[in-house]
């Protein structure tokens, strides 16, 4: 998660470049204002020269370590109190400058877990402590879990989000907490408390947490959301987002919860891609004609799968959402989808033949190919 209020750099600028001397100077000023013992000059002089050779995570951790050093020789709980003071100061600390505050708690808080968990309540309102809480879940699970339960009723939505996001079994970029993967029920219990949260941000986190769990325990997630769907106040968009991986897999329980036809009865009269050969930066258009051969109306989820060429020459599939469609018996539906072929942070296009499959209800019903030239 990017820091709150962070400005995203342009495509030409690396994300790490947002964490620069300006962030160091901002933190030096903030801490010096609150703590007259803080070595602002030494902090800036030691920290800024180190940043150039580091990537984003390395820059954040370096700033956090140097902040701790500049706070001097005092009890860890006392140093954390100054971190909290900076987090609570007005005007709010800049988005990118807030990230090292959470990392200080992550790196140095485990030696005084009670004070660190107290600090998270305030720091997470400036920069999410979803990464910072992971070592505490690993080493101080019971105390941390009890505090997260308390956070589910907090006045601030950013604090309420932490119990869901911080306990995600497969939180991206975060330390693995094997206990949360092996036994997801404590996380589900937190989600039960947050499922009707007034904040869409919190409910989105609940959905992402469930999607993580679904990768290992699909039936548990289907059973959980099936019960939630009986409650009129349940956010249907949240449930759809939680089941997205299972729907792409064609999991019958997930399709049924969302009202989709579990066993689609269709024939594909056409599935093609044009043009069949493209260079980077060009568009392709997918076109499909689906005809119902069922005797009852069908509600269908339609996806397509691109098998990208990887560095070894093998191919890896990626499922993309296309649409949902309602088909009456015998009806014909024509679908088109235009897609730009370009590099992205989550995938790399390479020259070669790219197979593409058409999925209806998670089942492959047709296939074709297109060529990419670099």
Provide a brief overview of the structure.
By secondary structure, the chain is of the alpha+beta class. Helices cover 44% and strands 20% of the residues. The protein folds into two domains: 15-257, Serine Threonine Protein Phosphatase 5, Tetratricopeptide repeat, CATH 1.25.40.290; 266-373, Immunoglobulin-like, CATH 2.60.40.10.
Structural account:
- The chain folds into 2 domains: 15-257, Serine Threonine Protein Phosphatase 5, Tetratricopeptide repeat (Alpha Horseshoe), CATH 1.25.40.290; 266-373, Immunoglobulins (Immunoglobulin-like), CATH 2.60.40.10.
- Mean pLDDT is 94; it is low at 8-12.
- It has helices spanning 21-34, 40-51, 56-70, 76-88, 95-108, 113-123, 134-139, 141-151, 157-166, 178-182, 185-194, 200-214, 218-228, 236-242, 244-249, 252-257, and strands at residues 266-274, 277-279, 283-292, 298-309, 315-327, 332-340, 352-360, 363-373.
- It has 374 residues and is of the alpha+beta class.
- A 5-stranded mixed sheet has the order 2-8-7-4-5.
- Helix 6 runs parallel beside helix 8, helix 8 runs antiparallel to helix 9 and helix 11 packs antiparallel against helix 12 (200-214).
- The chain is globular and about 80 Å long.
Overview features:
374 residues; alpha+beta; Serine Threonine Protein Phosphatase 5, Tetratricopeptide repeat; Immunoglobulin-like; 2 domains
